[in-house]
Amino acid sequence: MKRYWALSLLVLDVLAAMIAWFIFYVTRATWLEHKMFIPNSTFYLGISLVPIAYILFYYLQGTYLNVRRLYRLKIIQHTLFASIIGSVLIFFVLLLDDDVLSYRDYYYSFSVLFLSHFFITLIPRLSLVTLMIHRLRQAGNGFSTVIIGGSERALHVFKELDMQQYNVNAFIGYVNVNGSDHALQPEMPYLGHVTSLEEILAEHHVDEVIVAIESSDHDRLHKILVKINDLRIIVKVLPDMYELLSGSLKMTNIYGALFVELNRDVMPLWQQAIKRFMDISLSIIAILVLLPLYLIAAVLVKFSSPGPIFFLQERIGLNNKPFQIIKFRTMYVNSEANGPQLSSSNDARITPIGRFMRKTRLDEFPQFVNVILGHMSLVGPRPERQFYIDQIVQHEPQYVLLNRVRPGITSWGQVKYGYAENVEQMLDRMKYDLLYINNRSIALDLKILFYTVAIVVKAKGK
């Protein structure tokens, strides 16, 4: 059903863009140029490329990622923004060099282009979203929802939501926090205890989680949120009185209950697209520019000690998927014959050339290949082995949150701490990596890259 709505919206957008371009071109020929409409190369170019351009705009806005979450005001905003940007780009690329009698004709052309696309796109979009909302409000068609908490407070939250005329939640059950809390049991099935939350969410394909405990109980709330490791699941919590009185909350839901929806992916989709484009393009440029350095490093590694030039090791990446990280070898062969070991500043396993390469981060340069393959990003938390992740999680469960984003060649934690020599240093580095994923932006990436380049040039890496 989710794909059906997304595909329907995509088809409507393509048809609307083609019809709008056709109407604009006919109107422009007959009204402004006072001649019969005859398709030419510009017309065919526009009717081929304009829909693709608009689909790209809408995708970067996140329109097609979760269509069922769209609402009428949001679809108006998306359509208006894309129509303005698209009309400006089309005007300058395809129309600005046209012969006109007066500059006033340009204003007329732009107005017709913008208005035709905006209204021809908006009307079917609003109709589709209205139909979709109507379907969501029907019994059994809403977002599959689990309530965390089984107390009287949780029961009150459920009744408040269930009584609402515009409720779009389809409750499939509840998960209790205290074993004795079962006030919700007459209303919905009991799914289990919060200790089994990850398995419950995966088994029931949950869309939303409502945490019906006091948000002032920060320690318990924190442990629950760490278990919800899927960014596709919407998490709603009850605001505490301090947040309400301080005015720190911004809410736009008029009909719904008083919840705060947690935004756990702070980087907008258009910035994510730019970040990925930067990753691929800069990695290709780096490989081409640094090719002589690669050859020199390969020769030095080969003659520094017996063994291969490159070192491959399994690391855990985005969404906990393992991949083979590529490095220049900096240690003697069989350095981990007795099991996994972290390196230290005076590690006897490191070769003389390997010590220099670690200080300058030259050993990490082959990972540009990992970036191009999609395993890694230029900037992101450093990937670790499962062996050490298992140890770190025992001390700090929220370490698993780092795997919500692609790991990076460099990171905020790497800039601050360099290579970790023990689990304690990994935990210190983790704090900066968590700060990074909670504040991700293109500007922050560029800042981290700048400091990384300075470390490479000065050979001050740890």
3D architecture notes:
The protein starts with a helix and ends with a helix. Helix 1 runs antiparallel to helix 4 (103-136). The strands form three sheets. A six-stranded mixed beta sheet has the order 3-2-1-4-5-6, sandwiched between helices. It has three domains: 2-136, no CATH class; 143-261, NAD(P)-binding Rossmann-like Domain (Rossmann fold), CATH 3.40.50; 269-334 and 341-458, no CATH class. By secondary structure, the chain is α/β, with parallel strands linked by helices. The protein is built from 16 helices and ten strands.
**Low-pLDDT residue intervals, each spanning 5 or more residues:** 241-249
Please give the alpha-carbon distance between the first and last residues.
51 Å
- How much is the radius of gyration in Å? 28 Å
Estimate the global geometry from the Cα principal axes: flat
Oligomer: single chain
What is the domain total for the residues? 3
Largest sheet: 6 strands, mixed
**Estimated structural class:** alpha/beta
The residue fraction in helices comes out at 40-55%
| Mean pLDDT over the residues | 82
Helix-strand pattern: HHHHEHEEHEHEHEHHEEHHEHEHHH
Strand content: 5-15%
How many helices? The count is 16
